[in-house]
Amino acid sequence: MTDPNTGLLGLALEAARRAGDFLRDGRPADLAVAATKTSAIDVVTEMDIASEKMITGFLADRRPEDGFLGEEGASTEGTSGVRWIIDPLDGTVNYLYGRPAWAVSIAAERDGVTVVGVVHAPMRGETCRAVLGGGAHLDDRPLHVNAAPALDRALVGTGFGYLADRKAHQAAVAARIIPEVRDIRRGGSAAIDLCDVATGRLDAYYERGLNPWDYAAGELIAREAGALTGGRPGAPASTELAVAAPPGLFEPLQERLEAYGAWHDGTLG
User: Which of 54, 141, 182, 189 is deepest in the core (most CB within 10 A)?
Assistant: First the structure.
């Protein structure tokens, strides 16, 4: 019997490809020069909104009974039990400055469980994908996380929010983590960072302040590649905290993040 999620994967791949082509080919060549100007930011916002409309329109034409949750405002319940979770441009600041680490992220939930994830990074020329129970792939190559290193040999990705107070606390947490790991990387796209755990380009990743559209697809890809994912101890990934790492590294990293208060915006514990 054909897995019904395979059809959802095909739609997600095509929608992500179309949106990625639009964002790559429609980006003004001089946008980076004007990156600090309001006019440039407005252009990126318009591209972001147009990308989401392109994705939701494509999917709604083919599956009109499905629901949607998108970063740029798409929010419908649907009646099919399937909901699409969409970040039409993850890594907006990277896109604004002409940096390559941006992506289109599309996940599909069935009855509240994420069953499909696609992260398409046009400037990398890469598409990571996963189907629940079917493993994760980079294009056609199966993905597997790194074997867990000791914490002090782990390369860990993270991110920082836009609000000054949150960013200051995140920096303080990172300052506590850095001496305990090999090093820290800040890529600027949660979806890509989670895929980098799946591909072995990072050993682990954590961040506070993510929304479901930031992590839904990448989390499934990381998990299907062998990572453990979650938030605070005993809790799933959420806006409070998202963590991904192979078994054996996940636990000590999560313990430290809990102890250092990585899940809130206040003073360190």
Answer: 189
